[in-house]
Specification:
By secondary structure, this protein is α/β, with parallel strands linked by helices. It has a single domain, classed as 3-Layer(aba) Sandwich (Rossmann fold), CATH 3.40.50.300. 48% of the residues lie in helices and 8% in strands. It has 10 helices and 4 strands; from the N terminus they run E-H-H-H-E-H-E-H-H-H-E-H-H-H. The protein has a 4-stranded parallel sheet, with helices on both faces. The chain is globular. It starts with a strand and ends in an 8-residue tail after the last helix. The model has no long low-confidence stretch (mean pLDDT 89).
Length: 259
């Protein structure tokens, strides 16, 4: 039976760093990966096949990655057939995994297609995510000399920040709803900072509990704290629904792996 590890987490949660680390530990995460860009100088480590698959579905619904709670995602008729074909292609390897933040939006569907898959789920404070997305988009606009967009972003900073919080909410609400229905033996849920502090325990758990054959590569060799900045761009009060969801995720953490 194939061993599949799906790395889950909202954009800007540290999933690229964690997938880079797992790749160095020996996990095959794809032959054609999304490389470095302005927002991720060390590479995204996203399998292009899964990235394109998810983006096509979002385009079918006239959406981009910034999906919010009220957005409905309708699956194309050929979804199951294409998804099964993708898994069949990847299952040539006995042990493999993938990472694409958009997977958060399709967890229920993927769990039916890959019933034996295991999940490494990563989350991060909502205010840090919202600020990180804003900084990335502002940096991109400045680099490409889109000064009109830069001006609009600065003038509507609060609105953009709130929109980013709404995207964080949708992704992480989908995660929470998924793990409530999922056996705790099938997932590890941690913040990225937990994994940095407990990398050996995480690899040991993946190997011993899920049957993988990974060799721990010290995560501090690739972890750059400057790339996961904690400062926030906007100091607006955080509504309760965001802090409540963040606290709910903390309650479901895999606490036996914490140092």
């Amino acid at each position: 039976m194939n061993r599949i590890l799906i790395i889950i987490g909202m954009h800007r949660s540290g999933t690229s760093m964690v997938t880079n680390w797992l790749n160095k530990c020996g996990l095959k995460v794809g032959d054609n990966l999304l490389g470095a860009k302005e927002g991720n100088v060390n590479g995204h480590f996203e399998d292009i096949d899964f990235l394109n698959f998810h983006e096509n579905i979002l385009r079918y619904n006239k959406l981009n990655f910034k999906v919010k709670a009220q957005d409905k995602i309708e699956l194309p008729e050929n979804f199951k057939q294409e998804a099964q074909g993708l898994i069949k292609k990847k299952n040539k390897l006995e042990e493999w995994g993938w990472k694409d933040p958009r997977t958060c939006l399709f967890l229920s569907e993927w769990s039916k297609i890959t019933p034996n898959a295991k999940y490494l789920i990563i989350f991060r404070r909502p205010i840090e995510i919202a600020s990180s997305i804003y900084r990335r988009e502002l940096k991109f606009a400045k680099k490409h000399k889109n000064f009109i967009k830069v001006l609009k972003m600065k003038l509507k900073q609060k609105k953009q920040f709130t929109n980013n919080l709404e995207v964080w909410y949708r992704y992480n609400l989908d995660i929470l709803n998924f793990i409530k229905k999922c056996s705790p033996e099938k997932y590890i849920l941690l913040e990225y900072s937990d994994i940095v502090q407990s990398d050996e325990k995480v690899i040991k758990s993946i190997n011993e509990n899920w049957g993988f054959d990974l060799q721990n590569y010290p995560i501090n060799k690739i972890f750059n704290p400057k790339l996961l900045k904690k400062q926030v761009t906007n100091s607006i009060p955080l509504p309760n629904k965001y802090s409540d969801l963040y606290e709910a995720l903390q309650l479901h953490k895999t606490k036996n792996l914490l140092d």
